[in-house]
Amino acid sequence: MLAMSSLGAISVTMPVHAATDAEVNALRDEVKELKQLVQKLSDQQKTALSVSAPTTIPVAPANPTPPVSKPGWMAMSDGQTQVKLYGNVRADATYDFKGSNGSISNGANYPLNKDDPKQDSLNVSAATSRIGLDITRPTQYGDLTGKIEADFMGGNGDNGNGTFRVRHAYMSLGKWLAGQTTSPFVNTDTSPETVDFNGAIGTGTTRTVQVRYTQPINAQQKILVALEGGDVEKAGNAAGGSRFPALTARYDFKTTDNKGLLQLHGLAHENRVAPKDSASEEKFGWGVGVGGKYDLTPQDSVVANYYHVKGDGRYLLYSNSAYAYDTTTQDINLGEFDSAVIGYQRKWSPILRSTFAIGGIQYKDDSIYANSNLTSTSYNKEIYNALVNLIWNPVKNIDLGAEYTYGQRETFAGDKGDYSRVNLLAKYSF
Q1: Average pLDDT in the 151-166 region?
Q2: Entry pTM
Q3: In this structure, what are the phi and psi dihedrals at residue 338, rounded to the nearest 5 degrees?
């Protein structure tokens, strides 16, 4: 009985197990088919996307990121150009004890002693005030920069008068500059600081319309070469003028500690008189110069420069005309001179500084040029001045200065003129 019961149980159980295994196998097959179907659909979708996807269109590069405005600069509406306004409000007063020329500037034509000139003369001016605008904009070639600067010394700027005058107007990109600015031939970097608006005799401040190229040699050296336009020099008694631009050059060398600066200057241009097309006379004018500045200590520095020039009266202050033109022989007789300026500068404290300087020009007097000007009272054989000043900076951007100057000039005929003056200055820079 027991054996038969066991056999019955086995016979009942076996069909159940068989049914379960069949279902599992069927389920596995269905899952496998489902996976294959999903994979097939996925492959078809990838193929369709690769066929129907449009050609990729290059995206235009975004505009350059607007530059971050530097302190004191204003961004323009284009988001790229920045400008900075600067300048100064300045008032000058001079009191001439002797030999007044009726101007707040040192002059080359103050009265001769033989003429019993007036003394004790006061002159004032605010025409030396200036205003300027610096401009910069990034480009793929570097920053494009520009400058526009003007004052009111275009004419007689003394005693309440003044005429608007362009000082600088140029643009610069990379190594190139075009427009009006200081000539490479002049010595502004190696001239002493003065209260007088123009500076010591023999100083150069000439600004010309030019195309200039600057070539750095290394961190301490560079060369500047410029072609400068404008009528280089006219004689008052003849028409004419230069046909070609003046060629100027400057070499700069700075010491690695930035205490010293050496500059070499060069000039070449044509002097030409052509009262009519059939009568033209040309003479070559040239000049060379050397200047230097050195900081002896953080408080003391010396500056000096020297020039030798023939056939030019444009670049250095208080020089005569470039030549004397003989209307009879139609000859151009060139003037030739040497100039020198030396100065010592001292910072007494963070708010007090001084300069002592002497400068002068001396012409070669054994020449046809000298003999042609024996009767002229405005052409000088030699002229010099010496000055000492004290400048106080009581608050930021304010300068108050006082300067004493003594000078003398001598004509080719040997007549002398002396002048003695005090120059006062008040200036607010912004």
Answers
A1: 91
A2: 0.81
A3: -115, 145
